[in-house]
Amino acid sequence: MFGSDVIDSVELISGGFPAKYGERTGAILDLHTREGNQERIATRADVSMTAVEASSGGPLPGTKKATWLVSARKSYVGTLLREWGADYLTVGYTDVQAKLAMHLTPAHQITFGSMLGTGWFQPGEDSLHYSHIQSGQNNNALFNLGWNWILSPGALLHTQLSLVQQKSWNHDQQEAIPFESRGHDATAQQELGVQLTPRHFLTGGWNVHRAHENFYDNYYDLYVPSFLISAAYRRSAWYSSAYLQDTWQIVPGRLQLNFGGRTEHFTPTRQNLWMPRANLALHLTRNDKLTFAWGEYGQFPDFRQLWGEVYNPNLRAERSNQYIAGFEHRLNDRTRIRVEAYEIGLRDGIFTPNREWRAPRSLDFANAAPMFNGIVPPRLGPYQRNSLNGHTRGIEFVLQRRSANRLSGWISYAYGYSRYSDQADQLSFWGDYDQRHTINAYGGYRLSKTVSMSGKYRFGTNFPIPGFYLARGNGIYITSQRNESRLPFYSRLDLRASKAVYTQRRKLTVYSEVGNLLNRENRACQVREIIQLLASCDKEFPILPSAGMTLEF
Q1: Out of 28, 281, 422, 469, which residue is the most buried by the measure of CB atoms under 10 Å away?
Q2: Residue 308: what are its φ and ψ, rounded to 5°?
Q3: Which pLDDT tens digit goes with each residue over 138-185?
Q4: Interior CA angle at 101 toward 98 and 104, to 5°?
Q5: Looking at residue 362, what DSSP letter applies?
Q6: For 15-121, where are the alpha helices, taking DSSP H only?
């Protein structure tokens, strides 16, 4: 929920990340917000047919050692689609962000940041046939206080305190609230980086946070029939971690090794994780580089898996081993090619088929599973297990050109697959996010100093419809095999053209853009309620023209 105006840097680390990052077996998003302008007040405002956004920042009066930054956004594309009477999944957001940075001395810097935001969704009319959910909303508040202390020219200590509060709820078609969650997380952490020798940079840190959640959910019981409480809990937990890693320049400028380890503890499971990790970078030539990454990763169960509708308070952390190898070749100063292959092995994954409707098998009859019109319905209770094992494998190709003038952009292709097995229920199935082929492309072309055009294209063979479903013709049937049917392929093309007008201290940019130019009917599927018989496959937005202007001064 961070606006582009306040982001200084963002990096998506898909796997093989070093010991500094934890609490995940999948990808990590490393995002940093920028500070306000130190020289003068700089303001940017953007108004279009689908959203409005504004930001402003500068030095505090009388000093350049302290800066402020404020940003606000509001989207109304969902409201626009509803006014048009379109039957699509619609989403919206409103948020306000602020940051204050104070350079007290050359060695001490203090920052305070905050973010208040709300997001909402409303499914399309098709989904209302399969789910009671009419709409949903999520409110978030984030506050953090940071302190950077330069202990010496080769040592930096970073301390941070943060508080996150959230509230989520859904409305059903009778305007009741069948689901509500309220929670907060308080975190304290420190990181120390020390240049031990010209070839060794040592980094270590610790993190402690306390999580709390009040949760309530109900469902429509087909046997009664009436709404019954499926889960209600009020829980708190402590999480703690520590890491240590060394960046070793074995051959400066040619061979670098980053190695270390991480430990994590979670009070509900009373489990300690120890996870070694290593990354190697080898520069074969000035333009060629090999990279290798290996590591062990873990993710503890969340509150809902421990105490929700289908739960197990004795769950353990999910574990994964990740192996990544990459090769990068620079064609010139502006263009590069990168190839990356990966394998991610999952063990002790949390899973149960008891959350989903399915057709009976011999195993169900042997266990005397309840039936409803010949179908096995979801069952509430302590059925979650660490019984899922499997792997994700793939390869990715990226061609990128960076240039401030003329043509710039990138194109990527990825081939991958995810396959899992649950030995307890004798199931083997494709992962919920298994997608065989993925293509992403972005290109921008500057026609002149003031006129530019850009386009973005995304294609995917798409994910399975999550659950025990079989799509045949115009119908969807309940089956005994999971994730056997897939959504139609995903395809979306967006185009944008802009013209800039400069004055002495102002810049006005007028632009027009078209989202989903080919008017492709893309869909996304999910099950929003445990008792929901069929997955909700909402249509994403249709062709969406827009125009707007941006003023900077």
Answers
A1: 469
A2: -85, -150
A3: 999 999 999 999 999 999 999 999 999 999 988 776 666 677 889 999
A4: 160
A5: H
A6: 77-83
